[in-house]
User: Fold this.
Amino acid sequence: MWKPLSVPLLALALAFGHSAQAFPDQPVRIVVPNAPGGPVDVVTRVLGEALGQRWNQAVIVDNRPAGGGVVAGNQVARAKPDGHTLGLVVQSAVTILPFIMESLPYDPVGDFAPISLVARTPFVFLSAANGPIKTWQDAVDTAKSREITLGSYPAGTAFHLTWEMARRQAGIDGLYVPANSGTQVQAELANGDLDLALEAPSSAKGMIDAGKLRALAITSPQRLPILPDTPTLDEAGLKGFAFEPWFSLMAPAGTPDAVIEQIRQDLAAVLEQPEVRKQLDFFGMVPITTTPAELTRIIAEEREITLPLLRETGLAKH
Assistant:
């Protein structure tokens, strides 16, 4: 027999329903720590368009690339916690940056409400197409006979940590050469000034297809559709290795649970749309969603892994 809800349960149900119906009642802003035009920015705009259609509200992508992600993080942390300001948060912002900065203007854990992962973004090891290193094993053998050089993004980034993990597992050493852009790294590699490089697959694909660079191995556990002939590091000989940096969607701490859940469900729905998945595939990204609790656990686990590595490399400030 049907029974009416108790007063507390009825109030909770009404509160959830009211929050879900009320959101969003104005344009939603997604703060991105990357400059316009890059893969993360483009994918965020694709997601924003799909979410905007679902919400019948404009979704504005707000690029804040300054400060290595600090400016973007502060914008989100200080925003009104009503769901109308969200952050596209990359892995390094919460698992690396807090340990290599002397201080941050916000708490990288306590000032954010995790919503869900959006995608994982594996990296690719590269060599010059006309050079002597043709496989990952060639790179390992070369590094055991002389010092090799690997070019990638600045020290302390996910690229740097990926190299540190891979070289340590392989039992090799090498000089890490940081650069300000992938274009610079790829040019130096193609010219023979570097032995190896570590890049995002979508950024390197043009030079690979042009026959100037060779893709040696992908850091993900599975091959990527945009580089189907490139083996994973596990297949290439580094057994068990799998590292895929990610980016996620977060809100300011204090955002109502009902709003967080609605955003999570709507994000999961748009990530199933063929056009959205096509865009992620094009940029070498693997779509993935989680619950807020799962994302919180992932962050905690990866902070435990990266902090000792940052200390060993001398990058940790505390």
Remarks:
- The longest strand covers residues 112-120.
